[in-house]
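Quick log. Single chain, no ligands specified.
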Amino acid sequence: MRGIKIFSGSSHPALTALVCDKLGIQPSEVVTKKFANMETNVEIRESVRGEDVYIIQTGEGTVNDNLMELLIMISACKTASASRVTAVIPCFPYARQCKKDASRAPISAKLVANMLSAAGADHIITMDLHASQIQGFFDIPVDNLFAEPTQIRWIKENVPNWRDVVMVSPDAGGTKRVTSIADRLKLDFAIVHRERSSGNTVIGDVKGKVACLVDDMGFTCNTICQAATVLKDAGAVEVLAILSHGIFCEEAMERLNNSNLSTVVCTNSIPQKDNMSKSGVLKIIDISAVLSEAIRRTHNGESVSYLFDHVPY
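-> predicted structure:
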């Protein structure tokens, strides 16, 4: 591909390498480092004048450092006369702070959107935003890709008798996400309903079936672990969980290992190498094909809506 440069931030170079491999190009050279006072320094080692630039930087791990590094890289490329700079952010930072849910609470996701625009980003590519209205925080184009097609393919390829699976939302807020997958697979669905008086209950029939929990992100994993226990008590023979983003705090792996979950699947939007070594139940779905195809289509001026329902091969 001509006229394109792909740079990797320090958050997930392995994902950038997979994306570049599928596009048949090499990652462009950039050096990121910290000064003694912990300021971030970025050196773009290749000419980007007139080029279509893509910067891949996910939004978790050391979130604030990664975000600042991304902003500096965008600014550096714009001041070096790049024709367009696209920030590819598989997991959008501060996405859960997307509404004012208490007095004087900040809407931090809106602030991040303003910062990306002010730095000079022309376009944003992300995946499974915590709330789709975050796209409206931007005055530049935003492509919110979905992990759903890759998750559906994983279910078909890895779950025996998947036609007998029941898709389950761990809470009422995730119902739309679960019913979308259930409708496409023509499966039944259920909801774990929280009641203060009587505890969690299952709305739907899971007795004698495999239950598959679906959520957009896992941090403490307390919600899905509690839901797995409720589903087991309701008669489910096996409980799986599929997450779009495995953020995972320190206690999460131990909690998953001691839970009723037989398998927990998440995408590689965030590096999972360390977590894989800590948990035998964790499996990974590779999204590099989706991101690389989105980049190729954007570069060539093609529609990316095909990716909302299909997995590129």
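Residues 63-79 form the longest helix (17 residues).
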